[in-house]
């Protein structure tokens, strides 16, 4: 029985928690994360959303072992194989895994969707997960900086197509919308991700040319539990800024009544309205294939912001992101770079804006990828124009999907 | 002659209908096919043939300078492997190697090298070599035919991915006496090989041995074939894994460690050509077949020990100097570190040096070419020196100069006033700066200039003579550091040095002030001229783990890290918790997908027209003409954009729209100006349209995609050329890989690319068992295979497996089996199963005889579609075919779902109508609770259901059936019991000695244990009591009510006595006498017959004896004859005395 377990990769701190779990699951290296908010006097240890994420990963994998220390400041995670939704194992209702988020969760549901979508192409079976419960925030979140599900659907999921992962079999259904509840915690949304495109080895991608010119702007304005006119006001304000640049702007308005969430388990009849608010998500589409800039803005849960402000801020944010340049914005860069690193053993090129590369998250991703055994990135300036963008060349590790069955 | 009549011409066939008159209209038959089906069939056939040629396009990752092809020579012992190897070496390198062991690399042509490996006759070695061989020379004794090893090797090859080039080599052909027999044997063996490989497989014939080598002509033919070989289709496994075959090894453990403990873990250095994909720059996991898994401690690319002439030329061209060439120096055409070439041979822990002319050297002779071994001896013969007594100087620092002597003046103190280092630097930098691009190259240079001037200042505080530090200095340090801030932050090499410098300089106030002034200026100047932070720096800081991500970014941007830290330092004294507070801030940060924006600033920025217009270039509404012009004069001034907005420029006439005034040269010129302006406007619009077209049209030269297409030389592919287009795409990606690596600078490239195939590299491994070194045999090939991330994990592997048809026994579930899967060879306990109507996997006790089945075992997670071979043991002790099974991986998982059937039986204890109480199936109500609602069945097929446990007798339950059951019925519950394979993994570490797990049967045999026989499992005689059924009794009342048709007909018992019953029969008189006589006669007759039989028996025994004698004599004769025949034949078959090479023939 001479079987040597590969030793744990050790990390500290709570930053990049989701990313490390994803990389660990994909590469199969066990991780040991310590000192998670150990200095915090009020909330030491894992936050509710992180525990939820651990549970989610456990649900879609087989054979993973999670060990959280008593204080919650240390997590030992031994990854299993990504199995997805297998009937009889974890899937409770039909062919779908029901994942309930707790009421004190303050991250948007995209915090869970982003890692889940990264795991999904490498899964053995389809990944169908429905997020429900009193903690699902489908809107962008103000305090924690999560994007809305609309941005995820329109600006992140289409990028999977570039890796040879057919987008027609990926579906995100927003069954109920919700903004963040009071104090930024909780919501009542229901979101369902159906990811039926499993691949053996995603190919790499080459977005090294100029990002093209922005042709049109699409978007979704959503409001839950407030007057539907907020939508129009946001759209109007955003258009006021953007009309000067693009004429082809279409922003859909989505009004929903605020979700009713049971407050008390013992009294199911007792419900209250949760997740009232409004926000705007804008996506600028470029003439080059696969280049999308997405901006998200939402009214803070404590209120006090008029819809016009949200609209203009979102538009400004979009302009700022466009001016940062590159082919991928910061919201989607980690997804793209991780897929490139996990894909075939070829070199892919990605053009990123200087400010996108120069984010702490990007640097941390590069370091984490290297720790998990991927080769380091090549970084070089673009020399044929003066945009100041940076080309990151990523060599894949050829990890791919071992779980996928043949015949 | 006249009478001769010629045969008359045959009459032309009379067509039935008279030929029609030509009408002049086009002949309809002229433009059709004579045979309409034929063309279609022909077309179909050509298409079939064309399609058959196509294979799924695979990436070919063979680099430009590939590693030498690996040629292995395989065959049973005594077949002439070594002789062939020697002959080939002789043919290519014109050298003689007396004991060729280990891989031998030879330059064979201008651009090609071959590595020859002789595969020893051990199954482990054959398995390993089959995984890496590019070309296989399969040696067959022509006089004997195929042997077991050959067939085994062919089957291993087939299971691990057949390399395209397998050649048969027939030897010992000189032993045939009759030409016809030789011809027949050749033909027979050729066809046998063809049926093993493919029709038309190459077979070479080697006849006798001359001078210990095969005839030159035959070897020449073979070598020609090896040289002109094309690249075969790459194998998937080798195309996705890095690997190497080791051609040299060294034990690099520290000798003291070995002295302390003989069996300590060693560090070894393996070197060989890298093959397959790239080895990772660091932390590559590898498996050495027969040794185990390791992480490469360090790796280093070495210069190629056996370069091809083409490579040497290229190198000479690149470096600009031709290599040292001397007449007496031979071309290095052979590299065989493990063989005894050039008089040096390393075997395990000792070195054998052979030299023909004895061991007397002139060690002072300079220009003598010496072998490695000779050099070693010379070094040994050199006079002993004390420890530390060298010709070399002392080097205090890694980068410092060597000090050979200590100058006298060194101790006399300073002669001149010390000058601040910065002043020097300043001058120097000032000169340099104009060319300097910024801080980066300054950085690079910094390393060197610090070295030169650092010799004394770099010394630590301890070494300093005037170590008079005072409190004042500390303060001075602090305040100067803040001044230094911007400089040191940008200059990473400096900030550690600065404090030292200042300590030294603090006593010289004036100087300090001077250089400080200077520095401020310099810093300002630099800030002014600073280029935008460059990507190259980022690549360096990004992976510098001593910096946090934040610090790395700050460093890259050249922001002041120092000042912040300094602030903290200042406040540290009074607020003790400050630092912690700062960390707390860091803690509070969460990962964000939306970066934080200052919306006030954003609003300020984007509400201005200028900013919007500047951004317009990124939108499709951009004015391309302006942009193009902007680009042109971009080099001169940057802020042109503001003026770019107005369309009409150039003639100086423009209109101020706000004031309504128009400024222009002349009012009078206005009409002409308008005309001109109109023209101008039109021209601009045309220009704009043209530019837009160029950008948006598919072929436009400003369209990025089109540019890429043109650059990549991508051709257009039609619908039918799907295959070609796929191949082109793969090729394009390969080109991109290459160009991308080339565009990176050296340091980045090494870490991104890793160690590419074709390089010669040295791999250092730590903690290798000492047995590896002790048991090392150069004959056994050592193969280093890189592991992918998932192959390091363990779990259950589901495979499709089939017992080999030549293997004698079937395989039993749970018996240990040795798998050769991926790079690894290991023993595991497979469980066989079969899909039961696609619902479940049912366990099988034994593998089916001629069918595939599933197997599940615990082992490394190897990607699906990988082939494997299985053995029950590697030893050659068992005479049969050793490959027991082959198959492919289907899937990997962390759990299994194999079940076996479980039947629970019970008997009814009480029966009601359709309900019955069942006993003896369960023991407790808890068990029953688990099976509530389960379907049950009686033997006779009455179906039912378990309802509930009974309260009273433990383990009884109530069940309902579709009909009333009998008390004698047995009730079954059919259930499925999950089986889990044992988590047993035993790597076959044959290089360091290993023990296999034995099967139960083997242990019983070895330990002489009887197989336990369970009483219940034994067969007994089946006793079936005849069942007696009571007659059917219909109650009289019911019978009376039955309709007439169903009335039961029953005959009443007879009341009167019958005729026969009334009478009795008695013998009398004559009859009685006759009977008596007859009895006597038969008795006599029986006695006679018995006597006759006894006599006959006697005679038969005699006869049998006689025939047995004859039989024996006949058999003896036959035996004698056959013995004589085989003696005669055997002599023919023994290797002739002419060759004398292969003395290792077994038997």
Automatic annotation (TrEMBL), chain A:
Residues 210-321 form the RNA 3'-terminal phosphate cyclase insert domain. GO terms for biological process: endonucleolytic cleavage of tricistronic rRNA transcript (SSU-rRNA, 5.8S rRNA, LSU-rRNA). Its main location: nucleus. The keyword Phosphoprotein does not apply. SUPFAM superfamilies: EPT/RTPC-like (SSF55205). One of its GO terms (molecular function) is RNA endonuclease activity. One of its GO terms (cellular component) is nucleolus. Coiled coil: none annotated. Keywords: Nucleus, Ribosome biogenesis, Transferase. It is found in: Nucleus, Nucleolus. Residues 10-345 form the RNA 3'-terminal phosphate cyclase domain. Pfam families: RTC, RTC_insert. NCBIfam families: 18S_RNA_Rcl1p. Belongs to the RNA 3'-terminal cyclase family. Type 2 subfamily. This is RNA 3'-terminal phosphate cyclase/enolpyruvate transferase. It comes from Lasiosphaeria ovina. The lineage of its organism: Eukaryota, Fungi, Dikarya, Ascomycota, Pezizomycotina.
UniProtKB/TrEMBL annotation, chain B:
Residues 426-454, 473-482, 492-510, 565-574, 626-659 have a biased composition (Acidic residues). GO terms for cellular component: 90S preribosome; nucleoplasm; small-subunit processome. Keywords: ATP-binding, GTP-binding, Hydrolase, Nucleotide-binding, Nucleus, Phosphoprotein, Ribosome biogenesis. Residues 1-17 have a biased composition (Basic residues). It comes from the Eukaryota. It is found in: Nucleus, Nucleolus. Residues 67-232 form the Bms1-type G domain. It catalyses: GTP + H2O = GDP + phosphate + H(+). One of its GO terms (biological process) is endonucleolytic cleavage of tricistronic rRNA transcript (SSU-rRNA, 5.8S rRNA, LSU-rRNA). It holds the Pfam family RIBIOP_C. GO terms for molecular function: ATP binding; GTP binding; GTPase activity; U3 snoRNA binding. Its main location: nucleus. PROSITE patterns: G_BMS1 (PS51714). Residues 1137-1147 have a biased composition (Gly residues). SUPFAM superfamilies: P-loop containing nucleoside triphosphate hydrolases. The keyword Nucleus applies. Residues 1-47, 406-516, 565-591, 618-682, 1094-1147 are annotated as: Disordered. Residues 455-472, 1094-1130 have a biased composition (Basic and acidic residues). The keyword Nucleus applies. Belongs to the TRAFAC class translation factor GTPase superfamily. Bms1-like GTPase family. BMS1 subfamily. This is Bms1-type G domain-containing protein. It comes from Lasiosphaeria ovina.
């Amino acid at each position: 029985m001479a079987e040597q377990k590969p030793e744990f990769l050790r990390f500290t701190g709570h930053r990049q928690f989701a990313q490390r779990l994803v990389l660990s699951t994909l590469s199969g290296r066990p991780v040991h994360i310590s000192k998670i908010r150990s200095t915090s006097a009020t909330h030491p240890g894992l936050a509710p959303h992180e525990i939820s994420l651990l549970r989610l990963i456990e649900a879609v994998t087989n054979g993973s072992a999670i060990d959280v220390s008593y204080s919650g400041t240390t997590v030992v995670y031994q990854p299993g194989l990504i199995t997805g939704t297998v009937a009889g194992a974890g899937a409770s209702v039909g062919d779908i895994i029901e994942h309930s988020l707790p009421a004190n969760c303050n991250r948007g549901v995209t915090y869970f969707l982003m890692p889940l979508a990264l795991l999904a192409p490498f899964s053995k079976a389809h990944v169908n997960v429905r997020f429900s419960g009193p903690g699902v925030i489908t809107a962008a979140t103000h305090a924690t900086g999560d994007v809305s599900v609309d941005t995820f659907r329109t600006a992140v999921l289409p990028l999977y197509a570039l890796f040879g992962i057919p987008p027609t079999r990926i579906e995100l259904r927003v069954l109920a919308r919700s903004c963040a509840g009071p104090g930024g915690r909780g919501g009542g949304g229901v979101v369902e991700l159906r990811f039926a495109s499993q691949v053996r080895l995603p190919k790499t991608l080459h977005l090294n040319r100029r990002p093209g010119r922005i042709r049109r702007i699409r978007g979704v304005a959503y409001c839950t539990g407030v007057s539907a006119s907020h939508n129009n006001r946001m759209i109007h304000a955003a258009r006021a800024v953007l009309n000067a640049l693009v004429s082809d702007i279409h922003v859909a308005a989505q009004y929903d009544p605020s979700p009713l969430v049971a407050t008390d388990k013992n009294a199911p009849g007792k419900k209250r309205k949760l997740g009232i608010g409004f926000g705007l998500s804008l996506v600028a589409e470029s003439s080059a294939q696969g280049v999308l800039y997405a901006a998200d803005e939402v009214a803070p849960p404590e209120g006090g912001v008029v819809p016009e402000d949200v609209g203009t801020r979102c538009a400004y944010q979009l302009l700022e992101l466009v001016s940062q340049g590159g082919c991928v914005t910061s919201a989607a860069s980690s997804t793209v770079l991780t897929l490139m690193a996990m894909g075939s053993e070829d070199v892919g090129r990605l053009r990123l804006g200087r400010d996108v590369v120069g984010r702490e998250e990007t640097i941390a991703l590069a370091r984490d990828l290297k720790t998990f055994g991927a080769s380091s990135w090549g970084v070089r300036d673009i020399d044929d124009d003066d945009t100041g963008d940076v080309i990151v060349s990523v060599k894949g590790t050829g990890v791919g999907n071992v779980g996928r069955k043949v015949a | 002659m006249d009478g001769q009549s010629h045969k008359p011409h045959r009459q032309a066939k009379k067509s039935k209908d008279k030929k029609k008159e030509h009408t002049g209209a086009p002949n309809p038959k002229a433009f059709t096919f004579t045979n309409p089906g034929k063309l279609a069939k022909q077309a179909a056939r050509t298409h079939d043939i064309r399609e058959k040629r196509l294979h799924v396009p695979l990436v070919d990752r063979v680099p430009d300078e590939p590693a030498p092809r690996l040629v292995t020579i395989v065959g049973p012992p005594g077949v002439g492997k070594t002789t062939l190897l020697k002959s080939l070496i002789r043919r290519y390198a014109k050298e003689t190697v007396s004991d060729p062991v280990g891989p031998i690399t030879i330059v064979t042509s201008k651009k090609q090298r071959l590595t020859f490996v002789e595969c020893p006759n051990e199954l482990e070695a054959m398995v390993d070599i089959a995984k890496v061989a590019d070309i296989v020379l399969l040696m067959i004794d022509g006089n004997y035919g195929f042997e077991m090893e050959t067939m085994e090797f062919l089957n291993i090859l087939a299971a691990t991915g057949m390399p395209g080039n397998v050649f048969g080599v027939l030897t010992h052909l000189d032993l045939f006496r009759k030409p016809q027999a030789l011809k027949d044997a050749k033909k027979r063996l050729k066809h046998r090989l063809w049926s093993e490989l493919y029709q038309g497989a190459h077979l070479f014939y080697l006849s006798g041995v001359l001078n210990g080598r095969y005839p030159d002509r035959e070897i020449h033919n073979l070598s020609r074939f090896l040289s002109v070989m094309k690249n075969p289709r790459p194998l998937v496994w080798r195309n996705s894994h890095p690997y190497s075959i080791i051609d040299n090894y060294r034990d690099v453990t520290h000798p003291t460690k070995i002295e302390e403990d003989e069996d300590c873990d060693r560090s070894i250095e393996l070197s060989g050509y890298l093959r397959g994909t790239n080895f990772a720059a660091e932390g590559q996991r590898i498996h050495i077949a027969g040794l185990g898994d390791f992480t490469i401690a360090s790796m280093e690319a070495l210069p190629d020990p056996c370069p091809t002439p083409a490579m040497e030329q290229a190198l000479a061209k690149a470096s600009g100097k031709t290599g040292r060439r001397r007449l007496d120096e031979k071309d290095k055409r052979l590299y065989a570190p493990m063989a005894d070439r050039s008089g040096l041979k390393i075997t395990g822990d000792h070195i054998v040096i052979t030299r023909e002319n004895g061991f007397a050297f002139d060690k002072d002779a300079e220009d003598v070419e010496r072998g490695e071994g000779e050099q070693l001896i010379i070094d040994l013969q050199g006079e002993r020196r004390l420890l530390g007594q060298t010709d070399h100087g002392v080097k205090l620092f890694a980068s410092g100069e060597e000090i050979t002597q200590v100058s006298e003046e060194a101790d006399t103190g300073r002669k001149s006033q010390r000058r601040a280092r910065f002043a020097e630097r300043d001058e120097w930098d000032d000169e340099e700066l104009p060319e300097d691009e910024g801080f980066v190259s300054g950085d690079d240079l910094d390393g060197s200039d610090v070295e030169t001037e650092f010799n004394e200042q770099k010394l630590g505080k301890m070494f300093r003579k005037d170590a008079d530090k005072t409190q004042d200095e500390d303060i001075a340090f602090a305040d100067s550091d803040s001044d230094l801030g911007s400089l040191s932050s940008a200059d990473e090499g400096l900030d550690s040095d600065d404090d030292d410098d200042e300590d030294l300089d603090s006593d010289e106030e004036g100087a300090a002030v001077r250089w400080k002034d200077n520095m401020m200026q310099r810093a300002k100047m630099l800030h002014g001229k600073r280029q935008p932070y460059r990507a190259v720096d980022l690549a360096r800081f990004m992976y510098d783990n001593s910096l946090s991500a934040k610090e790395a970014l700050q460093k890259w941007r050249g922001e002041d890290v120092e000042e912040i830290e300094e602030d903290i330092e200042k406040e540290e004294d009074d607020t003790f918790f400050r630092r912690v507070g700062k960390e707390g801030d860091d803690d509070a940060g969460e990962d964000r997908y939306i970066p934080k924006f200052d919306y006030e600033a954003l609003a300020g920025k984007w509400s201005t027209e200028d900013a919007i217009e500047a951004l317009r270039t990124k939108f499709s509404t951009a004015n391309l003409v302006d942009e193009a012009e902007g680009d042109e004069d971009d080099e001169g001034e940057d802020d042109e954009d503001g003026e770019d907005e107005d369309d009409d420029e150039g003639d100086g006439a423009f209109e101020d729209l706000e004031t309504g005034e128009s400024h222009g040269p002349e009012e009078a010129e206005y009409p002409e100006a308008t005309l001109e302006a109109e023209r101008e406007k039109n021209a601009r619009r045309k220009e704009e349209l043209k530019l837009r077209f160029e950008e948006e049209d598919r072929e436009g030269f400003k369209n990025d995609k089109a540019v890429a297409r043109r650059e990549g030389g991508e051709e257009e592919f039609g619908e039918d050329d799907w295959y070609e287009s796929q191949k082109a795409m793969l090729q394009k990606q390969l080109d991109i890989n290459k160009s991308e690596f080339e565009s990176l600078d050296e340091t980045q490239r090494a870490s991104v690319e890793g160690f590419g195939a074709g390089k010669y590299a040295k791999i250092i491994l730590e903690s290798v068992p000492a047995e590896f070194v002790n048991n090392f045999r150069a004959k056994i090939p050592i193969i280093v295979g890189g592991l992918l991330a998932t192959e390091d994990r363990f779990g259950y592997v589901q495979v499709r497996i089939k017992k080999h048809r030549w293997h004698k026994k079937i395989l039993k579930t749970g018996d240990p089996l040795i798998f050769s899967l991926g790079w690894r060879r290991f023993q595991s306990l497979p469980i066989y199963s079969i899909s039961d109507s696609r619902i479940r996997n049912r366990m099988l006790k034994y593998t089916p005889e001629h069918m595939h089945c599933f197997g599940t075992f615990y082992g490394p997670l190897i990607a699906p579609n990988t082939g494997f071979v299985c053995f029950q043991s590697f030893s050659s002790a068992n005479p049969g075919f050793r490959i027991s099974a082959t198959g492919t991986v289907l899937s990997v998982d962390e759990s299994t779902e194999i079940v076996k059937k479980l039947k629970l039986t019970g008997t009814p204890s009480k029966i009601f109508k359709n309900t019955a109480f069942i006993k003896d199936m369960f023991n407790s109500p808890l068990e029953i609770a688990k099976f509530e609602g389960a379907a049950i069945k009686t033997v006779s097929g009455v179906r039912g259901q378990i309802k509930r446990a009974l309260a009273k007798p433990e383990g009884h339950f109530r069940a309902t059936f579709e009909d009333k059951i009998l008390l004698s019925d047995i009730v079954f519950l059919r259930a499925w019991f999950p089986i889990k394979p044992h988590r047993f993994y035993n790597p076959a570490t044959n290089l360091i000695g290993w023990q296999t797990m034995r099967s139960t049967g083997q242990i019983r045999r070895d330990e002489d244990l009887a197989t336990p026989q369970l009483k219940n499992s034994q067969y007994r005689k089946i006793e079936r009591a005849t069942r007696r059924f009571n007659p059917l009794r219909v109650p009289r009342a019911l019978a009376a009510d039955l309709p007439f048709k169903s009335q039961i007909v029953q005959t009443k018992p007879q009341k009167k006595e019958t005729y026969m019953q009334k009478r009795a029969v008695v013998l009398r008189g004559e009859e009685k006498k006759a009977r008596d006589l007859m009895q006597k006669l038969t008795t006599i007759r029986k006695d006679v017959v018995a006597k006759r039989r006894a006599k006959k028996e006697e005679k038969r025994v005699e006869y049998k004896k006689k025939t047995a004698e004859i039989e024996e004599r006949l058999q003896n004769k036959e035996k004698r004859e056959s013995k004589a025949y085989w003696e005669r034949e055997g002599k023919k078959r023994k290797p002739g005395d002419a060759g004398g090479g292969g003395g290792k023939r077994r038997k």
